Amino acid sequence: MVNKKLICTLLLATMLVTGCSGGSADSSQESSGTSSAPLSSSGEDSSSQQAGPSGWPTVYKEDPEHLEWMDDTSPITLTMFKGEVITDGWNWGDDRVTEYITERTGVKLDVQFAQSSDNNELTLMLASGEKLPDIIATVYPSSIQYNEMIQGDYIHKIDELIDEYCPSMWDLLYPEEIEFSKMEDGHIYYVSRQTQSVSYSNSPYFYMNGHIATRTDILNDLGYKIDEITSTDKWIEVMDAFMARKDEWPEVNYPIYIYQPSLTSGAFDGMFGGETTSSPYRYDMETDTLSYWFESERGLEQLKFWNRMYKEGYLPKNVFTDDFASIVPQGSFLFLLKNNAWEVPANKAAIAENVEGATVSFIAPITNAPDQEWSMAISMVSPMIMPNTVITKDCEHPDRAIRLMEFLKTEEGNLAVTAGIYGEHWELGTDDQGVNYPNPIGEAAQAHFDIAKLNTLGIYNSTKTWIAVDTLYDDIAGYPQRFDEENEEITAGRDLWKPYVKTNLASALPDLVTIESGTTEADIEGNCSDIYENMIIDIILAESEAELQSLYDKMIADINSVGKENLFTILLPKIHDVKASLEASGIVFE
């Protein structure tokens, strides 16, 4: 069980855009029940070739032959409010995917979309005393409205609805999804719109956008490949080669461009033998202590390295003031460093348009010593940060509402909203390793790299149809990209990072704790971050070793003076709660 104030701070929305997601490769961790088949990671796994109840072939895991949603598929219309701003006049049933969901379940949704993104409409709904929609989607567990709905008894306990109307749905949920969704009273109040297994980094479908992107056209001209720059010494060798010929690429103003928020949050700690997480804190499980990433010899070593890059001309001073959003599409970098730098492949067309012949990819993880390995933590669970789905007590047919959620949690439901309809939008593909995937056909194949066109088919339409999706299927739907020659280098760059990603790093536990505004800890963290975010840049731009050390010592003293230890004293019990919750679902930390 997790305290309702412990809200994940992981950036899954970014993962959705990039396809940085996946699922379990271990069937024992994949489901709390016994109905899920092992991954289709090998041609020898016969269960992966079976057809589901719908007649669809199994891609990832086999759906049970019978689920409670099948018991009543008579026509019914449920109302739903979705906190997304949609202005194109779309209605449920206007596309083939939502039409199919209604064909299968009998449920049609009368969807009302938000007029603005400020959540005021939901607040007014709750205050009006009028009848609420049957279903409310895009409800954030961190929001005031969510807590108000629980305290005001506006919404059903989802665990009780599952027990009463569709107990087989438990077999469709990951153990950690169940455990981490529980509130203080032990109940679950939402169906997670999006979740992922703790073991998803082991999935054959998983890939990871790297933290270091490059202009591969320049790299190739210099005689280097994306998989051979694995040490800082080699990296500097490449930059020296570039500097000797830099006039050939006048658009490149930044041999190194480093995104300041990623730098100050410690996103490159892994380069120096540490562990890259999503927060500036590091938890040491052995000593049960917290620290900032820079409060160590390793942290100081990193700051000295960036100072060296500045002094030698690889890292221009204006990196810390120039606009990141304009730099990427202009292709004005040789190497770009950013936590999950999805913007680089996403802008490959714009870069190629602005710079003739320009291509981009990720390079292999770089480390500062031969015996070091860049370890990266990714989100272990995600429902607490997602815009999830609740069923209100004004719903006259909660049985049909929860059973619709059960259908959407099946592989069939997940594949429908992410890849489309079997036989119409995709057919079963199998790679040379025996891994199954939905291979696009027809209109879906023609639109495969155009999200807007896919949306018109009802496919991958996150703002409209993603009500109960497992992140894994996002990767399954994107798997054919691996076989597209145009994207081959980008995919290879992503795969270079996959072996270094882990979901069970204890050092990343602070990622799962939110510091709520208006609290003592928020005030202290605000003071600390004001200090280190500015002083880290001053340290990197120091003109001498003595100045660097003096600034570093002052930064440490200053964060101590504003109550850093008090902050950590407050945060540690929350980390303990999260750790206990995840361990209860079977996660073993390292």
From TrEMBL:
Record's compositionally biased regions (Low complexity): 23-48
Keyword set includes Signal: yes
Protein name as it appears in the record: Extracellular solute-binding protein
Keywords on record: Signal
PANTHER family registered for this protein in UniProt: ARABINOSE-BINDING PROTEIN-RELATED, DIACETYLCHITOBIOSE BINDING PROTEIN DASA
Biological source species: Bianquea renquensis
Cross-referenced InterPro entries: Bact_solute-bd_prot1 (IPR050490), SBP (IPR006059)
Leader sequence segment: 1-25
Pfam short name (any one): SBP_bac_1
Statement: the UniProt record of this protein carries the keyword Signal: yes
Region feature Disordered, mapped onto this chain: 22-61
Classification lineage: Bacteria, Bacillati, Bacillota, Clostridia, Eubacteriales
